[in-house]
Design goal:
alpha+beta; Alpha-Beta Plaits; 4 helices; 37% strand; globular
Length: 214
């Protein structure tokens, strides 16, 4: 068993799991679908390729800086079809978009396939395609790659033991952690069950704790 650790840090991040129609929300921590999508971009894996080997990885997130929830508005003009199906030319749609500003996360991916974790880590150092923190408008400001970031530790131990990513992180014992669980916690609808092109995601359990509780 080993864990790959990644740094997700940037001016803006957005990790939507339940966006519908014009409103695009974000969770307050990275989604599994978003993190695995980032891994696929690093590996150069096409959206139509299987992600079964990545989906079995257990994910955890340590919050080193929560960030600030922000809302932006984008407009699209010339929308041809209204909600009732009737054609309406020159219609303008306002789309609210939510982001996290200045957030910093330590993300862990735990699995038994050490070679796979090593490949993902190497790809994050020299990614095949650009890496984004949830959306193309959210590039990382610091490298996702962490030197020595593949550790032979259980997920919770790895998240607890890794040094702070920012100088003014919360006290280590109070720091919030989100751990994927087999049966306990709140439900996230961000577990890939098909290639990303199919846009099919199932539920998974996520347990919230602090570093002191691990």
């Amino acid at each position: 068993m080993a864990t790959l650790l990644l740094r997700l840090q940037g001016p803006l991040q957005s990790w939507g799991t339940s966006s519908r129609f014009d409103e695009r929300e974000t969770r307050l921590e990275p989604s599994k679908s978003g993190v695995l999508g980032l891994a696929c971009a690093a590996l150069g894996r096409d959206r139509y390729e299987s992600v079964d080997d990545l989906a079995v990885l257990r994910m955890g997130v340590r919050v080193d800086r929560e960030g600030v929830l922000m809302r932006d508005f984008q407009t699209a003009t010339g929308v041809a079809v209204a909600a009732d199906g009737r054609a309406q030319r020159d219609r303008t749609v306002v789309s609210p978009r939510f982001y996290l500003a200045d957030a910093v996360f330590l993300v862990g991916l735990q699995g038994d396939d050490l070679a796979l974790l090593d490949r993902i880590q190497a790809a994050c150092l020299r990614p095949a395609w650009p890496l984004y923190l949830g959306r193309k408008s959210c590039p990382p400001s610091e490298p996702v790659f962490l030197p020595g970031g593949v550790v032979c530790q259980e997920l919770g131990v790895a998240l607890r033991s890794w040094p702070d990513l920012v100088s003014q992180a919360p006290a280590s014992g109070d720091r919030q952690v989100f751990l994927e669980d087999d049966a306990v916690g709140s439900i996230r609808l961000d577990q890939p069950v098909a290639p990303f092109a199919a846009r099919r995601f199932g539920p998974r359990f996520v347990r919230t704790a602090t570093i002191a509780e691990l």
